[in-house]
Amino acid sequence: MLAALIILSLPAFDFIKSVEGWQPYHDVSRLSGTPEGMLIEISGMDPYVGGPPSDFPAGQALWAKLRLKSDQGGDGQLFWFTDAKPPSEETSVHFSVPKPGEWCDVRMKLPALGPGTRIRLDLPGTGGKCVFASLVFEPRNMPIAPKWLPLLSPQYTDPQQAASGSLALVHDGETFGGFHLLVDGELMAIGNDRPMIGYLHGEETRWLDVAKVAKPSTWLETNGVVADAKFTDSDGANWHITQVFIEGKPGSFDVVTSVTVDRDREVVFLPMLTLLPGVNSYGAKKGHALFAGLEYLDDEPSSSEADITGPGAKRQVPDAEKITIPLMAVQANGHYIGVIWDQKPEFAAVFDSPDRLFGYGGHVMSLVFPAGVEREPGSLVPYDTALLAANKPLVLKATIIGGKGSSVVPAVRQYIALRGLPVVPKTGLDMQAYVRFAAGGWLDSRLREGDKYRHAYWPGATSFGPGAVAGVGVWEEWLARQTTDPALSKRLDESARGAVAQVQPADTNASDVSHVRYPVASLLYGHVEENAERALAAGRELVKRFGPNGSLLYKPTGPDYGKTHFAKDANGHTASVVRALLEDAIFCGDEALIRDGLRLLRAMDKFADSAPRGAQTWEVPLHTPDILASAELVRAYTIGYELTGEWQMLDRAKYWAWTGVPFVYLVNPTPGPVGLYATIPVFGATNWTWSWFGLPVQWCGLVYSDALYRLVRHDPSGPWKRLADGITASGIQQSFHATDHDLQGLLPDSFNLRPQTRNGVAINPGTVEANAIRLFGGPELYDFRSLRKAGLLVHAPGEIAGIRDTKGAASFTVKGWSNHPYYILISGLKRQPTVRLNGQAATDAEFANGRLVVKVEGTAKIAIVL
Q1: Which of 15, 69, 126, 176 is the most buried (most CB within 10 A)?
Q2: How far, rounded to the nearest angstrom, does the alpha carbon of residue 64 sit from its chain's CA centroid?
């Protein structure tokens, strides 16, 4: 045991013997006792049952142990409440049922409850049966950590040194863990030269001071340094620890730590590799820090309650499922230091910035054994031990990285350079299969109601009523042109015409349900000029939201999501409006609006080298790191580059593209097929309570991948195409299966990684389809080109290619995919130009307000003389 056991009389429910006092509360058709336990027949989307009031001892934290079997796997939840205080998200804990139809034992941490407490159990799944065999409670006695020992501060009288590019390692040769890491000669981190090992001996936890019992041997080896220590614990076991630092690619050292003991040891705590950035140098200050999947920090504390409150804020030693990339980094004084590791289930990652765990005065990045055991949030010492078997080496492989950087982005780039991107997941679909799948979502799911469509559907949800949506016609018509099934093509065409007919002409571009939108509907169905004028009016209204200095201040309309942020604005919150303004400006072509858009874009340069934040303030704090912020910033700066050709704009777009990478799973967090390239929406919570750590929300990632696909044209050497393809493939994997009639082809709002199950609401297929078009090779749905020499802005429903751009003339080819006439919009004109279509004078072209609209069919070659 890790702490003294307190024996208490606690409530227990043996459902095999009795179900007395338990009631079906919601979406349960029947609750009955059976020889297997309490049988619950589920009849709806939100099933739960509740028990009688029970008296728990005040002041005693608890374990709740639940044994159950469910026809459907997924996420369950246990609530505790009283008659005076109803259930809430804050008084609950989630649990997972990984395998349908199999008995599952779940252990959950509960606080002290007190007298008169009722338990509510929310069941996994939306149908079938669930059986509870038992629910018992046990005391949860907190693990006791040792008093961590002070560092030794070695003298380095006989150092061993190695260098890899600008990164240097100096080992003191006297203590295990006694090394310094320097970048360009500046001390960035030291090792922990006072490591302690904890193991269980009978009922007692023993703690070894490694520096006291072992003096290591160190020596230089080809391209590296070796430290080797042997010692005996107080109970007679012989330990052997070896740590090898080998020069890797420039700016990196590959590290292998191997631990062997000649007797079985139940280990409580065994540090495998520890870096202490800032100790003896820049201290607790920093420029930025990153713990991929959990923390993206400016100079602020990690594990704060700015983004999530309660126990979930303590992220020092998280479940590995929540780590998107095995990367930790701290940046300060123009340099960074970081750790990459081979993620294995036996090792836990530790990150604290500043260091409140050991109190050494800097920051902590560490990898420890064991993982996979229960911990109190933020605790280095777990509740349980893990066996280190006799004479079986425990091996950790990691890489220390370091280099120049004004943010943590260079650390992310170095991770990709060293580890690469994983292969794109297999969706099991080719183009034709995908077309059928997406068509099912538009035509046959509950998203559709006649000729009207919802943004999303979920049984019982009333927030998403059907509406008139011309954008659905675009998505359906594109599918109709790709399918080889005439009957399906006919259905899609008929549905598309019906959807478009519901919409007022000036609303054609504005009416869409996808999270990814293009101003393409009017280019297919007409009324281009009305929609351009609407874009001009909308853009002018957006300009009014900004202050004289170009700032867009957050103004709460409900809960104040800005109260935990260090400023009154944030880059993602601002970029979402600037991006919309620029899109309106390039469609209408108004010079003044374009100038305003570029002015406000340049004002966002004040956010340079910061973390992406605050793009989802309808429910998430302004402070919260956010992949949607990365997406909005990439898109805004990409448009800025297309308009100006300024390389600084492109550099900004690339920087913000890199900031989105830590939100993407580049290692599979669970053994399930869905995981790689899934995307975490924010490093925080909705309303500070509903945690998004480890819970992918792929629509946010798909908006980011759309921005990456548009960036590829200007930065083809970047990792953007593979990254966007992977995110898209994961979106297809996560979508509801074709066998689920009501939800087929729809994208879940979130995805549970361990049980591989989907959560509502179910979102329309457009967000996936916009990206799947690129994944499966087109044809391009919509294209925009800025012909800067001629001063023209060109929009078309199809790829724009073969561009010639000169000061007085331009030409290009539009590869239209529609089977009916469509329109090309050319804006930014000073006067009516001469236009030729396929070598002949264009006879169906209208010029007004500096905009030329040309009606064409098929592939169209346009030549313009100004």
Answers
A1: 176
A2: 30
* Helix orientation angle between 431-443 and 766-775, rounded to the nearest 10 degrees: 170
Kindly tell me the number of DSSP H helices and DSSP E strands found in the chain: 14, 47
Q: Rounded distance, CA 847 to CA 829, Å? A: 9
- 30: burial class by Cβ within 10 Å (0-12, 13-18, 19+)? exposed
Question: Tokens representing 727?
Answer: 């995110």
Q: How far apart are CA 59 and CA 56, in angstroms?
A: 9
570 closest CA partner among 538, 595, 604, 544: 604
Which two tokens mark 336? 């960074």
120 beta partners? 50, 79
From residue 359, alpha-carbon distances to 131, 207, 273, 276, 351 in Å are 48, 18, 17, 11, 13
Q: Which two tokens stand for residue 273?
A: 């590799």
Beta strands at 335-341 and 327-332: parallel, antiparallel or unpaired: antiparallel
Residue type at position 501: A
Amino acid at 136: V
C-alpha 611 chain-centroid distance: 14
The answer to whether the CB of 516 falls within 8 A of the CB of 573 is no
User: What residues have CB less than 8 Å from 526, skipping those under 6 apart?
Assistant: 505, 508, 823
Cβ density class 67-90: b for 16+ within 10 Å, e for less: bbbbbbbbbbbbbbbeeeeebeee
**Tens digits of per-residue pLDDT, 272-285?**
999 999 999 999 99
HSE of 688, CA atoms in CB hemisphere, 13 A: 16
pLDDT-derived band of residue 1, with 50, 70 and 90 as boundaries?
very low
Mean pLDDT of 706-727: 98
Q: What is the separation, in whole angstroms, between the first and last Cα of the chain?
A: 84
Q: For residue 28, what are the β-bridge partners? A: 42
Cis peptide preceding 370, ω within 30 of 0: yes
Long-range contact pairs involving 637-643 (C-beta distance under 8 Å, separation at least 24): 637/601, 638/707, 638/710, 638/711, 638/714, 639/579, 639/582, 639/583, 639/586, 639/597, 640/582, 640/598, 640/601, 641/714, 642/714, 642/784, 642/785, 642/786, 643/582, 643/586, 643/594, 643/598, 643/786, 643/788
* DSSP state letters, 278-302: TTTTTTT--SEEEETTTEEESSS-S
- pLDDT average, residue stretch 201-213: 92
pLDDT band with cut points at 50, 70 and 90 for residue 141: confident
Q: Is the pLDDT score of 4 beyond 50?
A: no
- Please report which helix (H) or strand (E) contains residue 601, including its range: helix 591-603
Structure tokens at 469: 């949506």
pLDDT band at 8 (very low <50, low <70, confident <90, very high): low
Cα–Cα separations (whole angstroms), residue 662 to 627, 830, 856: 9, 45, 44
Contact 17, 36 (CB under 8 A): no
* Entry pTM: 0.94
In DSSP notation, 311-356 reads GGG--SS--GGG-SSSEEEEEETTEEEEEEE---TT-EEEEESS--
Beta bridge partners of 525: none
Answer for the pair 835, 841: CB distance below 8 angstroms, yes or no: yes
DSSP 8-state assignment for residue 61? -
Helix (H) or strand (E) holding 859: strand 859-865
CB 63 within 8 A of CB 137: yes
The one-letter amino acid at 450: G
What is the tens place of the pLDDT at every residue in 375-410? 888 999 999 899 999 999 999 999 999 999 999 999
Of the CA atoms within 13 Å of residue 212, those in its CB half-sphere come to 9
Alpha-carbon distance 412 to 408, whole Å?
A: 7
Helix ranges (DSSP H) in 168-305: 210-213
